[in-house]
Amino acid sequence: MDKKSFQDDLIGWFASEQRDLPWRKDKDPYKVWVSEIMLQQTRVDTVIPYFNRFLEHFPTVEALANADEEKVLKAWEGLGYYSRVRNLQTAVREVHEKYSGKVPNSPSEISSLKGVGPYTAGAILSIAYGLPEPAVDGNVMRVLSRILLIWDDIAKPSSRKIFEEAVRELISHENPSYFNQAVMELGALICTPTSPSCLLCPVREHCQAFHGGVQTELPVKTKKKKQRNVQLAAGIFTNEEGKIMIRKRPETGLLANLWEFPTVELSLDFQRQRDQLAEHFQEQYEISPKVHNSLGQIDHVFSHLIWNIQVYSGSFTGEIKETPQLRLVSENEIEEFAFPVPYQKMLKQYLEYKKADKP
């Protein structure tokens, strides 16, 4: 391969064809960092409004470092993978305290920050600081596996090193920012997972897979294990004043520190859903609830499991002592709390049902 010709074709295409994305307005390392964390396992179109809103609330390292976690989670609400934003805030606080608010520009320092892996570090260093560091994610591995005819399984962690070395060999030292972004853009728009648009590709002449007619066979990627189904029942319970009970999830584990409605994992006896939900409520809060109408089922897919949630409306009488982890809130107040997507859907179901039920 003629490396210089490849770089010129790739970077020239990106310079003229790149998408107008808000994090490309400048090379502020904090903004690049936020965008790269948001873009992990999330589509660009989904991220754009979240990015703009997040930067309105937390425009600087200092603003995010000093922010209340509840407000940060609320701003992230709906993006999923919430450990990303908790790690981001922890790392930003370290940058604020240890580096006087300046995102470090050395590979060793930036890689030591919580939640900053090799890809994120490479993206920040190359895009914001112009350093010729590799930023290798699934997109990049797919593109390079085709261009360089690499048959190593990209699902194996050991393969990343192969692709990082390939980028170090190919990357433009004059414009590493555009080079890395161009490879990512190529993977997003043209060199897609299925049916790559080879006839539109600016580096088709350099692509070994295209010349060999094997572009649809690459990359090699073994399939993940099948997701496990979990059967749950959840209830939106109100007291005599119409206030809704919500509780905070544990500080660690899945969806940590977010709010939810009382939820129980069902035994194999699915016919007793109402009873199991009522028993769970009674055991947890020592007050007997009434489980009313079924509001339907919500399915929510995680990387390793699938929640199948039966949703009910309900009520209870008696006193419940509020704590930082247990609250009774009105329908207006509930908007201030950060809920995972399935619980947002439950609340929407409940409010629609309530509205339709009124004479």
Describe the structure.
It is built from 14 helices and seven strands. It is of the alpha+beta class. It has two domains: 3-217, Hypothetical protein, domain 2 (Endonuclease III, domain 1), CATH 1.10.340; 228-357, Nucleoside Triphosphate Pyrophosphohydrolase (Alpha-Beta Complex), CATH 3.90.79.10. The chain has a four-stranded mixed β-sheet, with helices on both faces. A hairpin with a 3-residue loop joins β5 and β6. α2 (29-39) runs antiparallel to α8 and α9 packs across α10. It is elongated. The model has no long low-confidence stretch (mean pLDDT 95).
Query: How many helices in DSSP terms?
Result: 14
Provide the spatial order of strands within the biggest beta sheet: 4-1-6-5
Could you give me the name of the CATH homologous superfamily of the largest domain? Hypothetical protein, domain 2
Count of discrete domains? 2
Distance between the terminal alpha carbons, to the nearest Å?
A: 73 Å
